[in-house]
Amino acid sequence: MGLARRIGILSAAIFFALLLWSYVHLSSNYEVDMDLPIEITSPQGFAIATELPERVHARFSGIGWRLMLMNFTRSSHFKLDLSERDTKDIGAGKFFITKEDLATSSTLPSDIKLIKIVPDSLGIQFSREMTKRVPVDLRLDVTPALGYTIVGDPLIAPVQVTVKGSSILLDSLRAFPTKELKAHNVRETFTKSLDLSDTLKDGITSLSVTTINVRITVEAIAERVFKEIPISIEALPLDRDLLLDPGSISVTIRGGVDQLAKLDPMTVHAKVIYDAMRFDSISAVKPVVDAPKGIEILSIEPPEVKFVVRKK
Predict the structure, then answer these.
(1) Which residues pair with 48 in a beta bridge?
(2) Strand partners of residue 310
C-alpha cells in the first residue's frame, strides 16, 4: 500500500472520528449566553417613550447543535407584541418586561429554553400616541471638486413628513433628520434617494415616508463683472443731501457658470448707509454690496466712493 493511500485513509478516519465526536457532544444539552435584538409592539394608542437597548443579554439552554446554529445564523430575536394588552397593565405609562414575557417570543426555536435575562427585567416607559407633521432635516457632507461649486440650496421631496409616535418625543420634535448624505469631489449635478434616520425608531410607530429624493446642483466656477451698479443711500436725514462720486460701481462676482449666465444684474445691489458721526471724520466710504444667496462678491471698483454732505 502506497504512502499517499495510507495518509488518505488515516485522514478519512480522523475526519469521521471528529465528526462522530462532534455529533455526540453537540447532541448533549448546553447553556450558552447570547445577546439578541429586541422588538416591541406597543399597546393600542400608546408608543414607547424611552430608548430601548439594542440587544438583551440572555442565557439559553438546549441541544448543542441547535444553540450553535442559532448563534451562527443570527436570525433569532426577542419579539414582544403588546398590541392587545389591556392598557391598565401599563399603569402610569410604565411596563416591566420579564423573562417570562420574552420566553414565548415567536422567533425563538421551540426547543430552546430561555433561562434568564440580564438585568432580570426591562422597564419601558410608554406615552400616548400622537401625530405630527414636521419638516425634513437634511444632513449633508458634500464637497465639490476643485474648480466647481454647489449652486443654491439642495432640492428635496417631500419637504415634510407625517410622524406618528410618542407624545413625549413628538412634543419636542421640530424636524425629522435624514441619514447623512456623503459625496466628495463632485463635478456634476446629481439626484439621490436618501433614507430618513432610524435613531428615533423606538418612539416612532409610523412615518408617511421613509426615504426622500435629494437634488444637488453642481457647476463649474465662473466669474462675471456687472458694471454701473447704482449706489443707493440709506438712513439719510430729510434735511441732508449726500452726493456720491461716482454714483455707481462695477462688481465682480463668482458662482456657477449657468447660475451667473442667468443672473439678472438687478439682483445685485450696492448701498451706502449714512452715519453722521462717522461721515464727519472721513471723505470716502466703501459701499455695501448684496447679491443672491450662493453668489460670492470678489471685488468692487472703485473700492471706495467720495461723498459730499450738504444741508438742504
Answers:
(1) 126
(2) 241
